[in-house]
Amino acid sequence: MPETTPTGLTGLAFGGDYNPEQWPESVWHEDVRLMREAGVTMVSVGIFSWALLEPSPGVYDFGWLDRLLDLLHENGIRVDLGTPTVVPPVWFYRKHPEALPVAADGIRYEFGSRGAICHSNADYREAAANITTKLAERYAGHPALAMWHVHNEYGVPVSACYCDSCAAHFRRWLATTYGTVDAVNELWGTAFWGQRYADFEQINPPRVTPTVGNPAQALDYKRFADATMRENFVTERDILHRLTPGVPVTTNFMTALSQCDSVDYWAWGREVDIVTNDHYLITDGRRTHVNLAMAADLTRSVASGSPWLLLEHSTSGINWQPRNPAKAPGQMARNSLAHVARGSDGALFFQWRQSRRGAEKFHSAMLPHGGTETRVWREVVELGASIDSLSPLRGTRTQADVAVLWDWHSWWAQNLQWRPTEDHDARERADSFYEALYDRHLTVDFAHPEADLSRYPLVVVPALYLMTEAAGTNVRAYVENGGTLVVSYFSGIVDEHDAVHEGAYPGPLRDVLGLTVEEFSPLLQGDTVRITGPDGSELTGDVWTEFVVPGDAETVWTYADGLTAGHPAVTRHGLGEGTAWYVSTRLDAHGLDALLGWATEDARIAPRADLPHDVEVVRRTGESGTFLFAINHSPSDVKVPLEAHGTELLTGERAAGRLAVPAGAVRVVRLDG
User: Fold this and answer.
1) Nearest to 487 by CA among 570, 581, 599
2) Helix axis angle, 26-38 relative to 375-389, nearest 10°?
3) Domain covering 615-671, topology
4) Cα 381 to the center of its chain, rounded Å
């Protein structure tokens, strides 16, 4: 079995992407000296170095990388060694121009960026396997090697290619997946608009058409593109496993739902030895620490609850958003330790030394343009010491309270064209439900709809448009066995091929919710509806309403106006030993909090009203003990109750009763016992 943690590390990982090829070799010794000063324990190397390692076809230059790895090893710094297959050299593209991807409109991309790859191209596959083999043969047994880093951020910026090679590959994939073209016709519903195919050779990728194309075909093409990238990863991984047994292999994910929507991370999580993630704050005015927590929880869930590794984030501002503010003093450490609280066994950055040239020269780094006389550098050194003091929690697991169901295939299907309204956004609902749970101080696991849910007292389904019959059976069994389920509108509508489930909406959720939906009634932009409770209290909905017909379900809140006036807006259904709630409109934050308040009562989850707003309290536990993180994102000093005495690891002080956490600070208590 491959290792599931970086080899040779005894504490948490701390460091970042190191790109020494951007600098004269005379700078390397200064870099390593400063890395030691900052407490760096691991760096990622060689991710974009194919053109240097193979400057012309079949001609290799490993000397510079030999010297670099030796230097890092001599200074006690471990190496996450990249296979540079995300950017083939320009000579490769001149020799094989068809390896450049083609967009859906038929335009072929050009060389000059990164990730411009047709993953079906045989010449690319052969060249990628070759450079991976050469690297593995040369560095197998090198004492600095901690793990392998295959490619970089699969799916960013190009996941799908629409060229003739991909068309042929897609046909083979369809034949393998479905067996016959008749099966494809049935599952894609090609009888509609006369799209029936007589053989596989007639099928092309979903290229640009005069109006909307076949949604089931588009959904399958997303699956195909994802599977093709994963196939290439597995090829490289297997080479590395064969030539460097015992060295774990990973590739860096981007699980934040706003940053990569083309990768099914449930499937990818099963293929890597260590789940790693890149996370960058989306500074659009929202509470960025909530999105950070959500991304960390989702990454840990992709890792099946095991420790994972934050492989990239930023020390301060980034460079690719319309507006890129700096992080406030202390925010870098707070962001880093929030990832650690939620399961990461370290914190690494892009990148070590800030570039002077190229597209990312204004992206912050551990060593900024201003050098060691900067605030960022001082905070990096302080963070390195903090990470070192947290070594005892390595390998422990974050403890979750509730689960949120999420499925990338459902998200892909939801985002296809011609849905009832463009204002419904599955990610927005996931964000909003997550934020409501976060504000109740509940730590979230994400789960696939067909996963075992039995350990969670509460399961939330914020947006599951695509739902298999197996998933419906799964959630029904969960409720019957005593669980509490909360389902939001436009869930359970279609099967895995984007075909509407037979019978009334919401398909496989009808029985567990105890109701049917006769018709959707989306609202016009800016319109709202009032919904009222039996006590006269009032909530507000927008975007979406439905004509809900309760069966055995109890009506809790009712539409007071609009087309659906008098129909149920929120229902509750007892089934077996459990309860299922349904909400058929988009509630605002106040309404979601009220709904989850009722649901948590059913789930017997005690309220945590004694915890201040915007203060995270998260636990990691394992053989080395229980560690309580208190992360204060608020501008005020707060006190957090402790259930036991302990030692605060960042200050070394004893803690009991109520833990003082200054504004913007983090405290980590190793509880006694």
Assistant:
1) 581
2) 60
3) Immunoglobulin-like (2.60.40)
4) 28
Cα distance between residue 503 and residue 492, in whole Å: 12
The answer to whether 46 and 10 have CB atoms below 8 angstroms apart is no
Q: Give residue 399's pLDDT.
A: 97
Contact 497, 216 (CB under 8 A): yes
* Residues designated catalytic: 153, 312
CA distances from residue 168 to 40, 192, 387 in whole angstroms, order as listed:
47, 24, 50
Q: Mind listing the pLDDT tens digit for each residue in 252-293? A: 999 986 667 899 999 999 999 999 999 999 887 779 999 999
* The CATH homologous superfamily of the domain defined by 402-602: Class I glutamine amidotransferase (GATase) domain (3.40.50.880)
Q: What is the pLDDT of residues 542-596, one digit of tens each?
A: 999 999 999 999 999 999 999 999 999 999 999 999 999 999 999 999 999 999 9
Q: Is 530 left (phi over 0), alpha (psi -120 to 50) or beta?
A: beta
Q: In the chain, which segments carry CATH 2.60.40.1180?
A: 615-671
pLDDT at 527 (0 to 100): 97
pLDDT surpassing 80 at residue 374: yes
3-state SS assignment for residue 405: strand
- Six-digit token pair at 379? 């905070």
Is this prediction's pTM over 0.85? Answer: yes
Instruction: State the span(s) of the chain assigned CATH 3.40.50.880.
Output: 402-602
Position 336 pLDDT exceeds 80: yes
Joined tokens for residue 405: 């169901």
d(CA 77, CA 82): 15
Largest CA distance in the chain: 79
**Mean pLDDT confidence for 635-639:** 97
Q: What are phi and psi of 57, to 5 degrees?
A: -55, 120
- Closest to 575 in 3D by CA, of 493, 627, 511: 511
Distance CA 495, CA 36 (A): 54
Mean pLDDT across 73-101: 98
